[in-house]
Amino acid sequence: MGRWIDVAALGVTQIIGYGTLYYSFSILAPAMARDFGWPSEWIFAALSAALLTGGLVAPWAGRWIDRFGAGRVMAVGSMAAALALAACALAPYGFLFVPALFAIEIAATLVQYGAAFPLLVQRHPGTAQRSIVYLTLIAGFASTIFWPLSTWLHDFLTWQQIYLVFALMHVVLCLPIHLWMSRRLPIAAEPADGDGARKPPSPHSCLPPEARSKGFLLMAAGFALQSFISSAILVHMVPMLGALGLGLASVAVGALFGPSQVASRFINMIFGRELSQASLAIVSAALLPIALVLLLVTAPSFTGAMLFAVLFGMGNGLYSIVGGTLPLALFGAEGYGARQGQMMSVRLIVGSAAPFAFALMMDQIGVKGALAVAALFGGCAVVAFAAIARLVAVVPVRQLGDGMLPR
Questions:
Q1: Which residues are registered as beta bridge partners of 197?
Q2: Whole-angstrom Cα distance, residue 174 to residue 180?
């Protein structure tokens, strides 16, 4: 029962964390640009720089999580997020707004998946992989909730007032949950069913020591390539589809992305129990280039574009799961926070540069050429995860006991 309470409570904080610190920005950015007298491109450039800063801080955040506990770090992050949102809202000039925006993305590394996944590993090491799947299913509704919520609030509030409301959410809702979870005993130290039995120990690495460095590099490469594709396509999806001849239908096609993400997580939750995390990573990576190639060969077909959005959304939805479960399956729970911080750093740094790089490619070689390059990157990610699966397959069976298989 405790696991479900933890997942549900964290699901609430993840919806708020992603909704207030990331998804709402695109809705409020035009008003921000207007108030500061900036072009909209400058506001999004500031966001990219802030995301880059968050990526650089992520490895330190991971080490803090291992040292002090994820719950305590997330509690600090809730306060930091509230203060950063308030600082953005109260900034009278753009040159004061930008460092506050940087603070928002630094706080995000302390309260989003990079901290929530380690908290589940620390609280429920024996069932963390499934718990991460359930958490991503709940958090997948962040955009579905906060895009319309931000739009509705903006009908009668300024963006500054909305950010103050969001800051209050972090103090009133997220902070108590994180404080409550930080003070609870780790599940491994709690007796089960009152009979004195202990919970399962932390899962161990399924990679032998000599393969860990290679496995880490392959995983980092695969995630970096996926992050590039995901960030580039999501930022440019509507104008990209318009340039391919979809016109106004591009908005309807883009709307399929969010539900497809949630659907893929739900399907994996129901049917993916027997699938190894390395295999799930291959499926996730393969869906992205398949979707891009399908769009390339069918454009400007509306049906082809819809299939692209569904497949791309499903691949991206699984990517969020694999980002938490694959490092746990390959390397175990020890040092998971630091390792997750390193992975988040790679993903955020590459993701922050991807929209600009993709825009440059579209300008130089056209939309179809840029899509072809992105599909090639996706194929390379599949190769990287396939190499990881091969590493896992050659581990002697005698090294894998209960709880050590990368399920």
A1: 192
A2: 10
- Please answer whether residues 319 and 11 qualify as being in contact, where contact means their C-beta atoms are separated by less than 8 angstroms: no
State the pairing for strand pair 191-192/197-198: antiparallel
pLDDT tens digits for range 286-295: 999 999 999 9
- Specify burial of residue 328 (Cβ count, 10 A radius: 0-12, 13-18, 19+): buried
Place of tokens 């599949």: 382
C-alpha–C-alpha distance, residues 310 and 380, integer Å? 21
Residue 252 CA to residue 163 CA, distance in Å, equals 28
- Positive or negative CA dihedral for 264, 348, 370, 38? positive
Q: pTM for this structure?
A: 0.79
Residue-wise pLDDT tens digits, 73-103: 999 999 999 999 999 999 999 889 999 999 9
> Is-contact 11 135, C-beta < 8 A?
yes
Least confident of 58-72, 243-257, 270-284: 243-257
The kind and range of the H/E element at 121 are helix 113-123
Tokens (6 digits) for 184: 């609870």
At position 396, the amino acid (one-letter code) is: P
> CA end-to-end span of the chain, whole Å?
22
d(CA 277, CA 405): 9
DSSP result, 276-304:
-HHHHHHHHHHHHHHHHHHHHHHTT-HHH
**Cα dist. 395→6, 54, 260 in Å?**
33, 36, 35
DSSP type of residue 192: E
Q: Which of 105, 94, 102, 101 is nearest to 39 (CA)?
A: 94
